[in-house]
Design a protein that fits this description.
The chain is α/β, with parallel strands linked by helices and 336 residues long. Helix content is 32%, strand content 14%.
């Protein structure tokens, strides 16, 4: 049996329908438009309640395109400690924000990838930057813990730090710095170099002194900086993702199917002995047997556990080769 007590959050893609066409999307909606059934969403929420999983994250596609979005969030808010959702901000209105507050939602994640020209180019729709920024303002005005997530690539790397300052001044409480993963529409050519990523993170962490909460979703950091911690990949160890077609993945950036909730209840999917479910049971000794020589010798392995599995898999073709954004070892360059 998996150690379900270790699961901390579940991400559910309630739809893959979207009103934007982002250049770095890991889950392109043009494959086919699907919605996860309301029955399966409720079952997943009940699973979280039963197993004391506090974080239930709704995403897509664009979740607000579903007509029953408020019904879903209301059902989650009555049963889960920390329900939250993502949005690109296009459909956010004051009435919706107030209604979400009324039903008990307090957390939201809004994607902003640069200033106006850059963001609109990356998102494939003119006006998306202004709508996203206004969404940040509206949620913040109502007291939401508003997270802004920025996907860092060669197309916006020079704007990230200034964007963090700008958007926190608009009311965002947390700024997430996520280096692009070469999956979906994104390509390896979009990835920045490890040293560039290191410099961006170092500059971002200086904002902590100004009261900005900076969260590095992926990547490592070799020295201790007050208010920060080394990233540890939680794929299938602390989190799982459920796609709009019911497929269960270790995370949204690592869509290696381990089961499907239309075919088996989620608890049975996570109890399987085949596929990647062994990640739920892997300890440090087993990890050391799988990682590369460079990672084995690195003093940070016990903390970072090799970095992001998805980045390693899609860049090197190996889950345990090591995060290509790591600048600790010279090996992790972008020269294949």
């Amino acid at each position: 049996m998996p150690r379900l007590s270790k699961l901390k959050w579940i991400t559910v893609y309630i739809t893959n329908n979207c009103n934007l066409k982002c250049k770095h999307c890991c889950y392109p909606s043009e494959k086919n438009h699907k919605d996860l059934s309301i029955e399966k969403i409720r079952e997943t929420i009940q699973f979280c309640e039963k197993n004391n999983i506090r974080d239930f994250y709704v995403t897509g596609g664009e979740p607000l395109l579903r007509k029953d979005f408020l019904e879903i969030m209301s059902y989650a808010a009555k049963r889960i400690k920390k329900p939250s959702f993502s949005t690109n901000g296009w459909l956010v209105k004051k009435k919706l924000v107030k209604k979400l507050k009324e039903i008990g939602i307090r957390r939201v994640n809004i994607s902003i990838d640069g200033f106006e020209e850059t963001h609109d180019m990356l998102r494939g729709r003119k006006g998306s930057f202004k709508r996203a920024v206004r969404a940040v303002e509206m949620f913040s005005e109502e007291g939401f813990v508003t997270h802004v997530q920025c996907t860092i690539s060669n197309l916006n790397k020079d704007e990230v730090v200034e964007l963090a300052e700008f958007i926190t001044a608009k009311g965002a409480k947390v700024f997430k710095a996520v280096p692009v993963t070469p999956i979906g529409r994104a390509s390896i050519e979009m990835m920045i170099k490890p040293k560039e990523y290191a410099e961006i993170l170092r500059r971002l962490t200086t904002l902590i002194e100004k009261g900005v909460r900076v969260r590095r979703v992926f990547g490592l950091i070799p020295e201790k900086i007050p208010g920060t911690k080394i990233y540890e990949c939680g794929a299938l160890r602390h989190c799982v993702d459920i796609a709009a077609n019911g497929d269960v993945y270790p995370c949204s950036f690592l869509p290696l199917k381990i089961g499907n909730i239309y075919e088996q209840p989620l608890e049975q999917v996570l109890s399987r002995q085949d596929g990647l479910c062994w990640l739920l049971r892997m300890n440090m000794k087993e990890l050391k047997e799988r990682v590369s020589k460079e990672c084995k010798e690195c003093p940070l392995l016990s903390q970072c556990r090799g970095g992001c599995l998805a980045n390693s898999f899609y860049y090197y073709g190996d889950l345990f080769r090591g995060d290509p954004y790591c600048w600790v070892k010279q090996k992790y360059s972008h020269a294949k």
